[in-house]
## 1
Amino acid sequence: MGKLFRKGWLLFSLFVLVFSVNGKEDSSYAGFDSNAKGKLKETLLVADELEHSGQFVEAYKKYTEVGKMASAVGNFDYASEIYIKAITLREKYDLKIPYAYPDRNLAYLNLCNHLRQNLNDKSVFWHQVGIHQCEADADTLTMLKLYKSFALHYINKYDHENAIAVNEKALPISLAFGDTVEYAKNLLDYSDLLNKEGRFKSADSIADIGYELIHKYELSNNIKHSTKWSFWFIQLKAFIYLNEGDLDKSEGFFIACLDSINQFNSRGGIDHQDLEYVTNIRLGKLYYELGNYIAADKLFVAAEEILNNPKTLGLTKLFFTIICYKPTKRLGYLKKHSKLLKNIAITLII
């Protein structure tokens, strides 16, 4: 891995050099207000001084802090440049970052997230490097997050086979880690990927295992103020049956999911608007395929209302820019894009 890393490091150092020469200074501070820009420049200056004085571990921490600032305002190109600077420093001097430093591998995680989102061709390399470093540091939680990001990289390229392979590597690590919620979420991802590959029986079996595991955990812990992952498994079961063509079973599970959300809310549980959105879309798709356009339209409108809620700004508006852009033409859009709807899949790897 050392030689592989150095080869990649040289390639990326060249990328950083080109970026630094061609980029304008203003672009480095895009997204920052004047106060935040001043703080970033001050922190970057401290990081440079620490590096020049030979305090490399402290410099690594400060560069990571600068990267976090840039990430927080959405300046991902500049954040990536700084993360690469931090990682290059760590590799060059073979730094041992203290276990007590909570962000010791955040540079790898955020860099991989940014490269993945930009569909950068170096994404695979940096995911491999980050996972290797986390393994060396026994930083299992960050490693699992990197595996999730790695799987998403392949999903973004519609390469579900490699995404499944990545997930299969992560599952035993997640199980050994001993966090029931994290393991259940990995099973959810795995089942979802198998479903998208048309491996319905395997997907259904994994979903059952995940549901039983997390449902038992939720009953034991009286979950009210965090996500009920059991609801996500119910929705996934419905989606599996939908793809398999068993529309009666699919409808039953979708309705059960929506009923569970409503009952949970009535008992004082938190909102699950992201799940409600996904369920409305998929159940609407089912009704559309059955020719029940009125029911489908009602569900798409309900999903659109969730998107327009200020509390749900993080949800993608992809579906409604495609099929529900103009209310007066909603059914026309549905018919026009029926083939597209058949292939569209919401992916949410947590």
## 2
Amino acid sequence: MPKTYVLDTNVLLHNPEAMFSFEDNEVVIPFAVIEEIDNQKKRQDEIGRNARVVSQRLDELRSSGRLADGVNLPRGGKLRIELNHQENMVLPQGLDVRKHDNRILAVACNLRQECEAPVILVTKDLNLRVKADVVGIDAEDFFNDKVDYHQLYSGTAELHLSAAELDDFHGNGQLPLNGHGTAMPQQFFVIKNQDNPSQSALARHFQATLWPLVYGESVNWGIKALNQEQQFALELLLNDQIRVVSLVGRAGTGKTLLALAVGLEKIIEHNVYSRLLITRPVTPMGDDLGYLPGSKEDKLRPWMQPIYDNLEFLFRDCPEPFETLGHLMQRGVLEMEALTYIRGRSIPRQFIICDEAQNLSPHMIKTLITRVGEGTKIVFTGDPEQIDHPYLDASSNGLTYLVEKLKDQEIAGHVTLRKGERSRVAELGARLL
């Protein structure tokens, strides 16, 4: 039996194409949602952009008929805009009917009384899902772009081989994977002797063959790997054939520091890329400080301070590290940019680092990765368990979405780093708190 899905505003602001994702079912958009979309359309960020796209999509659908009566959707199903049933609301006493959330809930309640088909409220608002449950309405999150974070591809695995096979790997410098299961391109393996687990080796899988690590023991800008996962990360960062790298891990695992060290090494020492471009989403943790004074660089400084901290550590042997950083920025070798200004650019032959990528939506990840020009490498770092964006979680953010979608591509690689190396205190906090 076809179902009726009532969409909340935040679903459309998260993904403007959500209205086309419900197959042959009916999609109902309450009129209160249109009002909220209209209130967001002038914002100069991703939410404002999504609000404008929603309005454009609905305007395009008007050519197929009157939206209040319902129109057919291109991928199946129907869409209609529903008024708020204010004359016969069935909400419990105490709920303010002037609030948009309650008006949306009222639409779902009245549709349930009018329709024989199941009515489901789709919202990313936890509290609205609780309210819906209280009044007996089925409610769920929008799952179309969700990834099971607990089953997220880690980029690493263990492989147990015989002593003879392990000797072949060391002697020949390679080992066909035939007969040992399947693996993703650029997946890493900890190979262990099945009879003596203390004998082991590290390997990278590529084209059905296991290869020894090439760069894992290297030193880049004074930084070397402190554990095997960091060795795997260096293997991805230093291999110029791998154009998209994602590093996931808790605070203190070395994601950003390794990426910065390799970026500086590749640009300044080896001249492989022309510029190190660093960007982060401007998403505050806690209360926003509002508008900041000064130039674009001055405004970006608070958001980029974690990057400056890492760069200061990397230039710790210089007499004046901040003067050195300023000189690199004046020369155009080092650039820090807000994601707001990335749209529309084409970025060739650069080493791009997107830090805190867990605060990006899948669409924002797509926007950034499609800016990559010829000869450019892009690195995404982040911790999906530390999300400050109001509409994202560990399963719906752009970083986990990227890992899942690109895991089977030869020019992309991923590693999940688990061991903290910042300090014993940082590791204790990340693990226990």
## 3
Amino acid sequence: MTASRSFARRACGLFLASTALIGTGAFAQDTANQPPAAANQQQADDDVIVVTATKRAENLQDVPIAITAITTKTLDDLQVNDFDDYARLVPSLSSKAGGGGGSADGPGTNNVYFRGVASGENANHSASLPSVGTYLDEQPITTIQGALDIHIFDIARIEALAGPQGTLYGASSQAGTIRIITNKPDLSGTYGEVNLEANKVAHGDWGYSGEGFVNLPISSNMAARVVGWYRRDGGYIDNIRGEREMTERAPSFDGGAPTGNTLVLDNDEFVEDDYNDVTTYGARAALKIDLNDSWTVTPQIIGQVQKADGSFAEERGLGHYETMQFNPEKLKDRSGIST
């Protein structure tokens, strides 16, 4: 099997990808109505990227380690939705599909590497855990199969730390660490956002997504933030019709002689065009409680289901983006995280 991926081409000219801001209150500050000093201060604050990679808030330029930070604006502008999207934005980050073909090459099975450092020969994981840790806020989401492919929406930033990070992040961070930092509940006002998208996969099917969030202050010291998403990625691999002949042999330790009986198997029930589609849906809810000026509690819960059908590889000897499979192929990931 030869691994082959086709990347989605956005069909913005054909379908409307709209963003609707909902709720009441101020959605953004109008610098035109602010005093010059306040406007200049806001512009300066917008230019500063604050990261928490060293367990404390620091200006990115002051952090004494190799770190790449992808901000909310960059994530939105480049329509980053998953691991494959943001991995392309980190120069020292690479990945390899976890399987040798079939459904194992689907989403959520990427083995992640920083600077080409792997835990085993030929980029295979020979140890109990990978060499790159992945975190959602402060919660590790690294598994031996690969990092959970969390949908990227309403994310404050993604921090990629190259080099050994075992001192701060322990096991599975010998080569580096990836941190996905979510937006926290905000006490300043009620606001939200809804995004709708339709897209077309090259050589494949149509896809679509819907995602949204709402931020709700509950009291002067308490706020909640709820996020939800549903996404379908269209397939691009065709499972074509085929037959297999199986000749019956007489029972014997060495295989036996043919009996002349032949059984013909076909895959008619599994034949389908663009059959490797992926469906991802989930939700996230967070609560912020300011106990006093020094202490804040921010409990959060997230759940996601990701279902992938079919094979994500084309088969040698067949046409482009074609395979011939005789068994159902499915991959289903369920994740639940609380912090």
## 4
Amino acid sequence: MPVPVVEFSDERLANGLRLIVVEDHLAPVVAINVWYNVGSKHEEAGKTGFAHLFEHVMFQGSAHVGKAEHMALIQGAGGTLNGTTWLDRTNYFETMPSHQLELALWLEADRMGTLLDALDQANLDNQRDVVKNEKRWSYDNRPYGTAFQKIFAGIFPEGHPYHHPTIGSMEDLDAATLEDVQAFFATYYAPNNAVLSVVGDCERAQVREWADKYFGPIAPSETIPPLPDMSLPPLIGGEVREVVEDRVPLARIHFGFRAPVFGDARLDALDLGSQVLAGGKGSRLHRRLVRDERLAQDASVFVLPFIGGGSAAIGMATVRPGVDVEAVERAFLEELERLASEPPTEDELARAKALTEADELGALATVNERADRLSMYATLTDDPGLINTMLPRYLSVTAEQIRDAARDVYRDDNRYVLTYVPKTGPDAASEAEDDVAAATDGDATEEDAA
């Protein structure tokens, strides 16, 4: 089956904004996706959480748009929208009926160019409180909620830009002045630090005309600082262990490994290997831990790709009631070690590639996902053409490459082990029951605005 090709235009406005357009007239919808090259890795010590804070502030109005009016206008026009923050970037996106494209472009341009006109102390204080409540809900008071914060801190050393969580420090946010926050926006929220992708029922010439009209007058930033050296040794250098007694319904064990950066072929192999290990009910970990030996409620392995010195390969399993945590850890690690010594079988490799191909093709079938991937590849690698080459790269991975990548990464001197165990004491059972409904599903999530 031939791999579909996404045809796109790629150009820059005079002020540096990168504009990528895909015409697709199959349905009368269009996706608008803006990636800013700013995430939590760009934050200074003592000023963490600014990138995520701005994801919320960006919905609080600009010179010509009232507080929360951006959301009301998009939804009133029949569209959907959101924004997310991550270590390497912040993005904002809408999916609209195609005849409402101009409205979405104008709204994005207005907040890029004039948000500071509406940012006052009251708005800052309000959104600071929103972020604090989000931290309480998503991290502090949620079973296993601090897991990824701890895993990243274990994989990336103190002082590295990936060490601190995207949500930031509440002490830093409390200390942030209006002038601090204004300076952060003026530095990073600029056309020459952004990619605008438009995919769907549109005309390239018309999109370019509207982009020139609405984004063209916005001045570029002249003060974007270079990132510090983010290079890292390939290995953590030893095994690090942490046990957390918390209000959790069941014990859960997490494994974190430092992995190659996004773009490295070994990361592609690890990604395919995660399908062999945990891709559905036919995977090795599911068959052994969940189905056959009934040690765990679930088991997962996945890769979080980053570009600054290393990525994260993560595994986790929730322990069945009455099962010893050490038995689950032992079985999990044995499967990682087996992959590192024995390449997948021909059937396992074919299954892993089929699952990956289905995921990739399913994503590329939607206008919003194509827009997001074009912005992602342009921002992180300067090569939006990866949208047409990533699937062939996955399909070319060999069983031996998966084995070799697993051998290089799934090592005891490159392992962070985090175990949550239920809190003991007279009130622990009732507290855990209260928290069951908030338990996470085991996937890493980006900070989400709307």
